[in-house]
Specification:
The chain has strands at 3-7, 10-13, 18-25, 33-39, 46-51, 57-59, 67-72, 77-82, 91-98, 114-115, 119-124. With 125 residues, it is mostly beta strands.
Length: 125
């Protein structure tokens, strides 16, 4: 079985940066589709960024150019580097995994099988 544990969340001012980590256990992340999602209270969980087993990436339009998804095979850890943060980036951030997802579905919550517990990101003015 696959286990995902997020860390690295916190509070930051507008324009600041954070790097989130997702430690993967049970499978090598490079054999999976890995993703970051986020959710604010009262809103649907939305896809932020995806890294597939071939190294291809997908980003939501709202974060493209500011966020970067990457992985470290030696540590079996997925990362999300977040720069130029705005209050709209506030939310609970989740790591997710699936065996393979067609490109058109990669930012859809229902496509993923395994989820971490989440880590909170708060961006203040």
């Amino acid at each position: 079985q696959v286990d995902l544990v997020e860390s690295g969340g916190g509070a930051v001012q507008v324009g600041g940066s954070l790097r989130l980590s997702c430690k993967v256990s049970g499978r090598n992340f490079h054999t999976l589709c890995m993703a970051w999602f986020r959710q604010d209270p009262g809103k649907e969980r939305e896809g932020v960024a995806v890294l597939d087993r071939n190294g291809a990436t997908t980003y939501a339009d709202s974060v493209k150019g500011r966020f970067t998804i990457s992985g470290d095979s030696a540590k079996n850890t997925l990362y999300l580097q977040m720069d130029s943060l705005t209050p709209e980036d506030t939310g609970q951030y989740y790591c997710a995994a699936a065996g393979w997802i067609p490109t058109p579905r990669r930012l859809e919550r229902g496509a993923y099988d395994v989820w971490g517990q989440g880590t909170q990101v708060t961006v203040s003015s």
